[in-house]
């Protein structure tokens, strides 16, 4: 079985970002592997280490040249080889799912691991859209995963708590915090990663075009109202605070 794990590169959670036109300007910004995708890379490695019949682990990134750094990190963690579809286009989740599905079919992947909700677009659509294109079952928000013969089993979060699942392979699984604790690449593995295959493809090879384009962007700011409330009468103060929150700040209905 081959495992395909998606790697996206996003700004570090502590980084300050700025806008340039209709997009975020990442020039000089620290970028890292998306946390949820990193759990997917780690889980692929752990499945192999647990004795599952994993023939190969392939990391896939789609984006500009700097995404190569994220793939090198995945290779240093233990991934066997990587594919970088280099493009300056910003693909939405549905368009990207078309590319991921094509790569999965070309690589004869039996399991796709993808972050449940990437930080850069705050969407949960990629896993579902990819599974729909392939006609594979999808398991979301997993916090435990095992390969048992021709099926995967484990547990995942649902609205009521969590539940056990069993599904046939091939399948798409979305990963999240709590599934594992990603390892840090060691210096020897970082050196070995430089010799591993990192294939470069173009977006044109897959016939994929964005379905959604950004027409405007802004960073949300909220000015302080600097309202003072007289607290001598608690009931009056509470009523005034409620009125301000509802009618001026508009943070409650």
Radius of gyration: 22 Å
The N- and C-terminal alpha carbons lie at a distance of 52 Å
Total domains: 2
CATH class (first level) name of the largest domain? Alpha Beta
**Estimated structural class:** alpha/beta
Q: CATH homologous superfamily of the largest domain, by name?
A: HUPs
Number of strands: 13
How much strand? 25-35%
Instruction: Bin the helical content.
Output: 25-40%
The number of distinct helices, counting runs of at least 4 residues, comes to 6
**What string, H for helix and E for strand, traces the elements in order?**
EEEEEHEHEHEHEEEEHEH
| Level-2 CATH architecture of the largest domain | 3-Layer(aba) Sandwich
What number is the mean pLDDT?
89
Unreliable stretches covering 5 or more consecutive residues = none
Largest sheet: 9 strands, mixed
Shape: globular
**CATH level 3 topology of the largest domain:** Rossmann fold
In which order are the strands of the major sheet placed? Answer: 11-10-9-12-8-1-6-7-13
Question: Can you walk through the features of this model?
Answer:
With 253 residues, the protein is of the alpha/beta class. The chain has 2 domains: 205 residues, 3-Layer(aba) Sandwich (Rossmann fold); 31 residues, no CATH class. The protein is 29% helix and 30% strand. The chain contains 6 helices and 13 strands. The strands form 3 sheets. The chain has a 9-stranded mixed β-sheet with strand order 11-10-9-12-8-1-6-7-13, sandwiched between helices. β3 and β4 form a beta hairpin. α2 crosses α5. It is globular. The termini are far apart. The mean pLDDT is 89.
